[in-house]
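Sequence in, structure out. Go.
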Amino acid sequence: MRSQFTLFFGIFSVMALSNAIVPVLPAFSGQSSLEGAIYAAYFLGAFISTLPAGILSDRYGRIPLMRLGLAITVASGLFLSVTLSPVPVLALRLLEGVGAGIFVASAMSYVNSTEEHGKMSGYFMALLNAGLVLGLVCSGWLAEILHSPSAGILLFAVLSLIPAVTVFLVQESPLKVKACDTAGLFTLVREQRWLWYSSIVLIGITGVVSSLYPKFSGASSDILGYWIAGMSVATIVAVLAASRITLPEAAAIRWSALLMAAGVMATFYTPAGFLILGALAGVVMIAQMAVLADLKDHLGIAMGLFSTAGYLGMALLPFLAGLVADSAGFFLAFIATALCAITVAGTIGR
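Output:
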């Protein structure tokens, strides 16, 4: 029970803290480019830390890495709550991303090592998305009520203290896995290359529509917040449902990729496409984690690669789609994104 509480409340608070700065970014910088850099610094930190965290969790155990990730999260969040200068904020967001990447990789490895990993992964991914939603909503609401842009950041940094304490009460059975050498790492990268590709593309697509829609739709920030939050809510429902049924993993990813291509084009015409993409992303993540759960020898490195691929997709695809939108228009950007999803359908399972 203590391990489940730490895992679930930990991922909720870490994700909520990661999004708490988003509604109040203008308070930390008056320039759009710097706002974008502050936002992206978190993903850069997570991208560079998840794979090393996975390797180290195989070698030294998952619990020490979870403790380290939560400690970095709490420290960076508390410092962020008392800092408004852009350069320190940029550095702290990078550090926050490092802490999140360490915790996510080791915690996902722990989840997939349990006997009920299917159900556990559903709860884990549901609370991950719930944290993203509530971090976004509560931070904006508290900033308006208390007239303090840092109120939401402080709230979720303090909440992160709870799992940072309870993680010291969690014990782990001695690992039976062997340390992953360089040859083993490259073997895993090669053998599961199409799974990593599916994660880069299909998770990255959710970032594409979130990044393109503000300028494309011209909608107000509050309406945009509801639409993007709706995508995460749809993901929560989907992961809870998909984790309770047995799906052929490759077929589930293949059909979800094809439907995501249609969902991308639906989003061009209606914001209801956010719900479609969110639900399909949930199915994809549960199917991907089910595949990786069979890699008993190196769960840490597998989940580290999985997290790294997802963060890479969130960083790379929105950037590329933005370049297409600037040079050729939004319609072609949506078309190109849909075609990327179709390539997954043709490669997964090979």
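Check: The radius of gyration is 19 Å. The domain at 181-350 is CATH 1.20.1250.20 (Growth Hormone; Chain: A;).
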